[in-house]
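Lab notes, practical 5.
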Amino acid sequence: MISVSEKIAEISGIHAGDGYLRIRSGVEVDASGNIEEKEYYDNHVIPLFNSLFNTDIKGRFFQPRNTYGFRTHNRQIANLLIDLGFPNGKKTDIVRIPLQILNYNNENFIKRFLRGYFDTDGCLYFSNKHYKFKNKHSYPVISFTTVSKSLADDLDLIFKRLNLKFSKYLKKVKEKNWNNKTTFYFYGIKNLNKFINEIGIKNPSKYSKYLIWKKFGFCPPNISYQKRKDILSGKLDPNSFYGPIV
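Output from the prediction step:
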């Protein structure tokens, strides 16, 4: 049984969201996300792995899939992921929270796993269905979607353990050999503030949405991370993404 730490818990969340483990003649550990997440990988994910495993991983672009992250053949990292129960090869349908984290009576480990998982595979957006500002996107929504039934069951358990109020939806798919999708939603300002204060966001691209909402009371949807940075620096007016109110 490995000795779990907060760093290991967060790495587990990152791997559950963006990671891939291959064991053939050697080992290969791969993690990558949207190219807009380069800052997250360079300034948080890669330093986290390097500090824990005393290695020198470098970030890189993966051109065929248009992502950014890292690839390493470090046996120590691979062995940790194996010991945590992560599968060799495709994990999408069967991934789950490592039992060493799930069953350990330490909320900080669960929160760090959840932060790593949200930063890589969670979503934050602002809806205009319940609005404070007319026609603007001001109502916060956090969501997690998985096709792994085991992970869905684990998330249900830890959300309840952390007293996070959520709605859960199961989308049944018609295609053969495809898994149903489970989506968890956290609606409203109270849920967002609780998530920020207790779990946190380390991914700058996702966190920029929160910062814009915090500053202006709304956050325009479907804009690039660079445009969000321009809004936060004062170079761009978020109102410019909306037409005149009539």
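Observations recorded by the TA: The domain at 120-239 is CATH 3.10.28.10 (Endonuclease I-creI). Residues 38-53 form the longest helix (16 residues).
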